[in-house]
Specification:
With 454 residues, the chain is α+β, with helices and mostly antiparallel strands. It folds into four domains: 83 residues; 173 residues, no CATH class; 131 residues, no CATH class; 45 residues. Helices cover 36% and strands 22% of the residues. The protein is built from 13 helices and 16 strands. It has a 14-stranded antiparallel beta sheet with strand order 6-7-3-2-1-4-5-8-16-15-9-14-13-12. Strands 10-11 form a two-stranded antiparallel sheet. It is globular, with a radius of gyration of 28 Å.
Length: 454
């Protein structure tokens, strides 16, 4: 729970931010500002920022507060808040040079155990354990991402504190990722930066309910060192940190710097639809019409973005479509400024020809064949788990597309085992296409997806 004071609409309020992420603004006891029945009125406009001072004299800023009147108070559920590390007078986090993510899913992506020097770690005769750590020069990896305004992603491991009594457990180390910017960033950038990297690690974890133990806003001093000015806390339900099980996590060591940058570029681009990634670990094990359609849309969009079109590989289709488009262009010129209705039909016909491409069933079938060496064991598992071991790839591809079309056009049909098998396979293929686009070798992709979707 956090308490303090803030100003809203030029009036001073006491605020309480409780463990349920509910912000309550309480007016002074001697002065209630609310008219009768104000709680029945619509919510006030969303406040982008609400600034205040905590009871222990730290700056705090709440983001995206949709305030509503409740009794004599205002209530809201902020999207996030930032609180300064030290007293308000000494720490201003309005401008920052870096954002650092620590622990949580980072421990799976950049495993903290790499910091342990196993050659120097030993158990002595009296049973005393001597734990030795590698220096930061060995455990730190910097990636210059020129495709993203030359930001630098630095991965490292934070060592335990000096007092053994402060440890939660022996060897309690956590991994960090610091994103360093070429130019100062402001409060307007905070949530966009967080959302960007949250989407990246949602992909790596195949789970949107991910969390970090700590997110810090840092200021770069004249000595080149980074000082934490404030901590970002984002409201999120069903948050996981992978602290208990990191065995399935995709790890940075699987990628070169260039491959990591390409993966980030793909999963944050318009070619990648992330709606198929489950919100929770429980969702991962089930399928419904929404998740099925999201998976189909993600599959189709990524396939069309990473593969040649049908016209590019079929000379006969290209010849016919070029002839038709030439004739349509001639008709369009003929009726220029003469008959707008005919020209509108010409435009519609042209758009249809441009869209001539592989059907979803064909895309699925070709992908199964193209990536067979990578996904064959996972395809077998998906079939066997649903009793479809004797179903051909062609039948699965056809049923995958048919069920998608039925759902998309409002004709709900119950899920059959073959549809679930197709869904499980499609999720794997999406990941394979992302990694192929990044230039990973087949053996590396095979190891990653088999570990992630085992």
């Amino acid at each position: 729970m956090i308490t303090g004071y803030l100003t809203f609409n030029e009036l001073n309020y006491t605020f309480v931010y409780d463990d349920d992420e509910l912000l309550t603004l309480i007016p002074p006891p001697e002065d209630y500002y609310f008219k009768p029945f104000e709680h029945l009125l619509p919510s006030l406009p969303i406040e982008d920022y609400l600034w205040g001072i905590t009871s222990d004299n730290r700056n705090i800023c709440f983001f995206k507060c949709a305030l509503s009147a409740y009794s004599c108070n205002y209530i809201a559920r902020p999207a996030a808040y930032i609180v300064s590390k030290k007293s308000a007078a000494n720490h201003d986090f309005r401008l920052f040079h870096a954002m650092q993510f620590k622990g949580g899913v980072m421990n799976g992506f950049y495993h903290p155990q790499m910091s342990i020097n196993r050659d120097e770690t030993r158990i002595e005769e009296d049973g005393k354990s001597v734990l030795s750590f590698h220096p930061f020069t060995i455990t730190t990896r910097k990636i210059s991402m020129t495709a993203f305004d030359n930001i630098i992603a630095t991965f490292s491991v934070s060592y335990p504190g000096t007092k053994i009594s402060d440890f939660i457990e022996l060897g309690d180390v956590e991994s960090i990722m610091r994103i360093e910017f070429c130019e100062e960033k402001s409060m307007n950038n905070v949530l966009d930066i967080y959302s960007f990297w949250h989407s990246v690690f949602s992909f790596f974890c195949f789970n949107k309910g991910i969390g970090f133990n700590e997110i810090a806003l840092q200021h770069k001093g004249i000595d080149g060192l980074y000082e934490t000015r404030g901590y970002l806390h984002v409201a999120q339900k069903n948050e996981i940190t992978l602290k208990s099980d990191m065995s399935r996590a995709i790890q940075l060591k699987s990628f070169t710097d260039e491959q990591f940058t390409e993966i980030v570029k793909t999963v944050t681009s318009e070619m990648f639809y992330s709606l198929f990634i489950p919100q929770t670990e429980k969702e991962r094990r089930f399928v419904n019409p929404n998740s099925y359609l999201a998976c189909c849309a993600s599959f189709e969009n990524l396939y069309l973005s990473t593969h040649k079109s049908l016209c590019d590989v079929d000379d006969n289709l290209k010849y016919v479509s070029d002839r038709v488009l030439t004739e349509l262009t001639r008709i369009d010129d003929e009726y220029f400024k003469k008959d707008g209705e005919k020209r509108r039909y010409v435009k519609r016909l042209k758009s249809l020809i441009y869209k001539v491409n592989y059907t979803q069933a064909e895309q699925f079938k070709y992908a199964l064949n193209e990536y067979n060496e990578i996904i064959n064991s996972l395809v077998k598992n998906a079939k066997n788990s649903q009793g479809c071991e004797n179903v051909s790839d062609n039948n699965i591809a056809e049923e995958y597309a048919n069920h998608r079309n039925n759902l998309a056009h409002g004709s709900y049909q119950p899920f059959e085992n073959i549809h679930i098998s197709a869904y499980l396979i499609a999720r794997v293929i999406i990941y394979v296409m992302v990694f192929k686009e990044a230039g990973l070798e087949d053996d590396a992709i095979k190891e990653i997806v088999e570990n992630l979707f085992v």
